Amino acid sequence: MTVSTEDLTRVALGQGHIGAALTLSCAAHWNQSASDWRLMIGQGGGIGLEDGNGTLVASAITLPYARDVAWISMVLVRQDWQRRGLASDLLVQCIEAVESRGLIPALDATPAGEKVYLPLGFVPIFRFQRYELDLGKPAMPQGKGDPSPDPETFEALAALDAEAAGAGRPAILADLVARAPGAVCRLDAPEQGFVLARPGRNAWQIGPLVADSVDGARRLFDRALARAAQRRVFIDVPDGQDAFRRHVEAAGFSPQRPFTRMYKGRDRAFGRPELTFAVAGPELG
C-alpha cells in the first residue's frame, strides 16, 4: 500500500529523537554517533517528519554560528520515503529559517548534492576530500592522553578557530573537547595551532585542524593520528593544502570521497581558510 506524504507530521527534533535520528544516519552508512546527534540537536534547530506510527522518517539540522553563518546538515530520508521531495522540502525550510535570522546558509555537499543545491542559489566556495586509513587496531585506547585544556587555553583555541572559520562556535568545540580530551593537541607559542578529534560510529574523525604553518599542521596531524582510538580514521582535507595532503597520503591515507563547501548569498569564504588544514566534518563545518 502506498502511503501519501500528507500522512507525515512535521516535528521539532528534541533529545527524545536521538535514537530515531541515529537510525536514519546509520541506514545511510554515515559516521555520526549518538553524541553527535545530541550536540547538533542541542545546539541547533532540528526538524523531522514522522509517519502515522510516530516513526521518524526524515531529518534536517541547522546550526547557527556566531555572527553571519548557519550550518545546514543531516538532511536524511529513510529509503522507503525517498524520491518524494521530502529532502528538498526540509532543505527549503532550513534555508528559510536561516535567512529569516539574517544568516548565510552554508553546507557541505556531495557531488550528487551539489547538483541539487546549485539551482537553489548555493555557490561553491572550496572543495575538500575525505581521506581514510585502516590502522588495523587503535593507536591509543580512549581516555588516554593529555587532560582537557584549561579555560585560558581553550579560549585561545576557540579564538583561533573563529579566526580561521570566520564565525565562533565555542559550544561545539567544548563538546568535542569534553568527548575526547586526550585527542586535543596544541602548538606551543609563538606558533599557533590545534587539532581536535572524536569517536564516530564507523571511524575516528580528526578535525578541525587549524595552524599558522604547514609544518605545524603536519606535527599536529602526526600527534593526532598517534592518539586515534578507533582502527578506522577519517580526515577531511581542503583542496589547496597540497603539501599537507601529501603528508596525509604518505601516512597511508587514501581518498574516500569529495565534498564541496557551499554558501547561499555569498561567493567567498568567511575567515581565513588558509589556516584550516582539516575541517570538522560535513555535519559541523
Task: Please describe what this structure looks like.
By secondary structure, this protein is of the alpha+beta class. The chain has two domains: 5-102, Gcn5-related N-acetyltransferase (GNAT) (Aminopeptidase, 3-Layer(aba) Sandwich), CATH 3.40.630.30; 130-278, Aminopeptidase. The chain is 31% helix and 30% strand. The chain has helices at 18-27, 34-43, 86-99, 111-117, 151-165, 170-179, 214-226, 242-250, and strands spanning 9-12, 45-50, 56-64, 69-77, 104-109, 122-134, 185-186, 193-199, 204-211, 232-238, 254-264, 276-278. Strands 1, 2, 3, 4, 5, 6, 7, 8, 9, 10, 11 and 12 form a twelve-stranded mixed sheet that branches. A hairpin with a 4-residue loop joins β8 (193-199) and β9. α1 (18-27) packs across α2 and α7 runs parallel beside α8. The termini are far apart. The model has no long low-confidence stretch (mean pLDDT 93).
